[in-house]
Task: inverse folding
């Protein structure tokens, strides 16, 4: 019998912070493990083995689905200004705006390029939550903050991964806090690298270019959105100051063409750097924990959904109160069985988690022995040869030779 969460295996721990939030004695804090993922650490002198932490832990109570029907929708924000700044169809912004005077909890990248969750009503903070960030965010103390807001009768909108949502719901249930004023959104998730690996990516860029990073955007619509732009959908945009020591926000430079800027693609899609629990994810189902699940509507080109999808389109899966929320939105379309089938065909993580790479252990052993530059060259298609390929890839795009660009891209990126 497990006495506390310190004994939970890292292959099943999601770092959701529910255990820390529920502990009234302050015996649990989160700390980064050797791969940079946040895990619970238990102060045995404070712990009285009350089992409160084990009762809320998603690893010890695996997700088995949610009762009720799951309904599929296409959605596109009516405001092009919001749409262009959103990863797909702007669903997060629309749902957050549909709630009266909400506190919104979502993922941001701070001035140190660290990815974390915050709770805020400030428009600039909520705008910063927009867009995908392919890093597991640091949850900090947001679960308790959400609990305090709900206990005070405030409306709260939460956005996060399914495991983070599950942890939140477990905590609120154990703390006997009503969820009547809570709306939750989760994602169809590929898996997440750590803030440590993102820090290494940033350091590598800054060192190689002699600049200071200002912002990293994980997705771009500059070259379009949709299946025929699949590789270009994931174009990285690294913004830097143009200076080595100081960040001058009035004189920033955006880089989307260097190999160093695009390296995050291979860090993410190599699957070598994902959290161990991602390979055993129990949330690969349409019956997820949140009221609404968000994703790109890949494959919409193959349907007759009447939306201007080249600007970006979201796939929404509503359940329970989430269905009522979707129906209040503008420019949503309920999918029929044929359209839903197309959407499902392109969302493999509704059925199974990502496969654990055979070389994952080798990657991390080499990283700890030799550092990031070594593993980037050995595993992540980085170095002089790939810099030359990147130049050819950019040239093919400039000449609008799609076939050649795709071929070179296949050599460059996972």
Result:
């Amino acid at each position: 019998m497990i006495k506390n969460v310190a004994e939970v295996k890292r292959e099943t721990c999601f770092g959701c912070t529910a255990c820390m939030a529920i502990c009234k004695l302050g015996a649990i804090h989160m700390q980064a493990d050797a791969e940079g993922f946040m895990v619970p650490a238990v102060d045995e002198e404070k712990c009285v083995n009350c089992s409160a932490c084990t009762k809320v832990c998603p690893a010890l109570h695996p997700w088995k689905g949610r009762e009720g029907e799951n309904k599929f929708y296409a959605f596109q924000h009516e405001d092009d200004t919001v749409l262009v700044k959103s990863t797909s169809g702007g669903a997060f912004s629309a749902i957050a705006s549909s709630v009266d005077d909400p506190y919104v909890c979502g993922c941001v990248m701070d001035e140190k390029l660290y990815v974390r969750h915050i709770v805020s009503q400030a428009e600039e903070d909520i705008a910063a939550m927009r867009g995908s960030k392919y890093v597991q965010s640091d949850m900090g103390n947001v679960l308790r903050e959400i609990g305090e807001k709900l206990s005070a009768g405030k409306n709260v909108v939460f956005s996060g991964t399914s495991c983070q949502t599950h942890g939140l719901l477990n905590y609120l249930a154990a703390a006997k806090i009503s969820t009547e004023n809570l709306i939750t959104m989760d994602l169809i998730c590929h898996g997440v690298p750590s803030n440590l690996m993102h820090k290494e990516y940033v350091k590598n860029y800054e060192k190689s270019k002699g600049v200071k990073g200002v912002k990293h955007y994980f997705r771009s619509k500059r070259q379009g959105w949709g299946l025929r732009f699949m590789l270009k959908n994931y174009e990285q945009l690294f913004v830097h100051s143009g200076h080595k020591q100081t960040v001058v926000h009035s004189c920033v430079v955006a880089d989307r063409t260097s190999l160093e800027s695009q390296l995050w693609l291979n860090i993410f899609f190599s699957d070598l750097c994902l959290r161990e629990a991602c390979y055993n994810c129990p949330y690969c189902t349409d019956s997820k924990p949140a009221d609404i699940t968000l994703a790109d509507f890949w494959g919409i080109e193959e349907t007759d959904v009447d939306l201007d999808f080249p600007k970006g389109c979201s796939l929404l899966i509503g359940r329970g109160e989430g269905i009522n929320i979707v129906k209040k939105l503008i420019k949503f379309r309920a999918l029929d069985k044929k359209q839903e089938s197309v959407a499902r065909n392109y969302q493999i993580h509704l059925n199974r988690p990502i496969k654990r790479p055979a070389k994952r252990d080798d990657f991390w052993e080499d990283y700890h022995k030799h550092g990031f530059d070594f593993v980037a060259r050995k595993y992540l298609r980085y170095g002089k040869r790939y810099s030359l390929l990147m130049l050819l890839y950019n040239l093919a795009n400039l000449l609008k030779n799609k076939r050649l660009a795709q071929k070179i891209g296949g050599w460059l990126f996972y």
In short: Residues 195-272+355-412 form one domain. The mean pLDDT is 94.
